[in-house]
Design the sequence.
């Protein structure tokens, strides 16, 4: 019997449970990795035995036995994890302890595939162990962003490619085009952001802080220190209020007529930059590097992420705005208008580079992404900026690069349906969508 391992993930867990039950009815057994007591109970009460669930929690002391069976970058794992980084000693002890537990669990359970994200350290350790041992495959089911309504299995810890089964690869690919249409979850996210700024939502956040609602003791994905939590949450609330006083430039026809490049800020902390974009997570340094390479008479426009308001302090914006010919544009400015008028788009890992490439506009990421294989989207480094004459040279070189056909790649490596959590899209649990997801997971065993 084939076997899958699912790493439970909060609001995604109800979908995972329903999917797992469908797979087990089709002769694929499922085991689990969890880090939350409530989710452990939910899965256990749904029919899985304790021996098929690995429950990981923070240790009670910072003593540990060093894990040496596989080469893991424990310092990198620690600093990229938004919770563990706030208690270094316990964090390191936890990482070494769970590496041993996960390693033994995978040896015992022998799953063919492990499915999870790459947000938290336990997910990254699992992915690294799969790669090291070579007999298991770590996949992250996730939207491909464009086109809307499709998702795929991203491979490994860096997610620079999409996994495809032989069965799927043999299917006839249609001539569908990759339209740049915002997925439905973007609108839902905007609604959630708007609600988060209301007085009622702020009061609710204060209540949850005081009651520690839904935070299990020992849950490694939550900062355990109340003082550290208060410091971070308090700073975010203050930053949200002060952001109203940040000078943002409204986009005008005159601004769009200037020669400019666009840098899209990331929400931070977030796995897209702290994990996928690691080693390039200092966004102020990246902005300065792009600015230093601007041709004379060119401008740099910085666009804030609408979901990141509160992440950055006033001092960050002041430092950005001190750079000559640099403007912080309104977060409400339509990204498509800015992309079309720009000379190029820069980001760490953002899908805005994917969007720009599909629109025929040169774009650059500082970390490897699956869309770097397409024309107009290239991975660069700080040395790329340092060694070019100016950005015009970088852009000219990008326009001559060999490419892979984006339509063929995306449609042959993705599936119809929606794979997301029930909070972002409650409709994800509908039977029609679940049938599509189940069929895609079954395809993995048809090689």
Sequence:
């Amino acid at each position: 019997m084939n076997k899958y391992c699912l790493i439970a993930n909060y609001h995604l867990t109800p979908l995972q449970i329903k999917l797992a039950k469908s797979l087990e009815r089709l002769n694929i057994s499922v085991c689990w990795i969890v880090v939350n007591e409530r989710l452990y109970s939910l899965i256990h009460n749904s029919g899985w035995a304790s021996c098929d669930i690995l429950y990981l929690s923070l240790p009670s002391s910072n003593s540990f036995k060093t894990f040496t069976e596989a080469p893991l970058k424990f310092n990198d794992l620690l600093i990229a994890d938004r919770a563990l980084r706030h208690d270094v000693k316990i964090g390191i002890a936890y990482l070494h302890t769970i590496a041993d537990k996960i390693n033994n669990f995978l040896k015992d359970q022998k799953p063919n595939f492990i499915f999870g994200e790459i947000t938290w350290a336990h997910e990254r350790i699992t992915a690294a162990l799969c790669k090291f041992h070579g007999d298991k495959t770590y996949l992250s089911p996730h939207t491909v962003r464009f086109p809307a309504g499709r998702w795929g299995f991203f491979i490994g810890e860096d997610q620079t490619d999409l996994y495809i089964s032989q069965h799927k690869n043999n299917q006839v690919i249609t001539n569908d085009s990759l339209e740049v249409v915002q997925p439905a979850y973007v609108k839902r996210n905007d609604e959630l952001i708007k609600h988060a700024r209301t007085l009622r939502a702020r009061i609710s956040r204060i209540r949850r802080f005081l009651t520690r609602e839904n935070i299990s003791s020992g849950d490694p994905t939550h900062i355990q220190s109340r003082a550290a939590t208060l410091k971070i949450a308090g700073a975010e609330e203050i930053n949200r209020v002060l952001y109203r006083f940040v000078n943002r430039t409204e986009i005008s026809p005159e601004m769009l007529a200037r020669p400019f490049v666009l840098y899209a800020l990331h929400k931070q902390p977030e796995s897209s930059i702290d994990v996928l974009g690691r080693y390039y997570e200092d966004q102020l340094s990246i902005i300065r590097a792009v600015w230093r390479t601007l041709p004379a008479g060119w401008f740099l426009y910085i666009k804030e992420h609408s979901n990141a308001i509160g992440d950055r302090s006033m001092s960050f914006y002041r430092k950005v705005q001190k750079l000559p010919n640099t403007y912080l544009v309104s977060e409400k400015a339509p990204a498509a208008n800015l992309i079309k008028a720009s000379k190029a788009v820069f980001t760490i890992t953002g899908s805005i580079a994917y969007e720009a490439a599909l629109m025929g506009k040169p774009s650059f990421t500082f970390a490897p992404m699956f869309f770097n294989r397409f024309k107009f989207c290239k991975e660069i480094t700080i040395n790329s900026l340092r060694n070019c004459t100016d950005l015009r040279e970088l852009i000219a070189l990008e326009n001559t690069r060999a490419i892979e056909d984006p339509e063929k790649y995306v449609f042959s490596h993705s599936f119809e349906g929606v794979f997301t959590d029930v909070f972002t899209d409650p409709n994800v649990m509908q039977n029609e969508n679940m049938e599509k997801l189940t069929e895609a997971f079954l395809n993995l065993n048809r090689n």
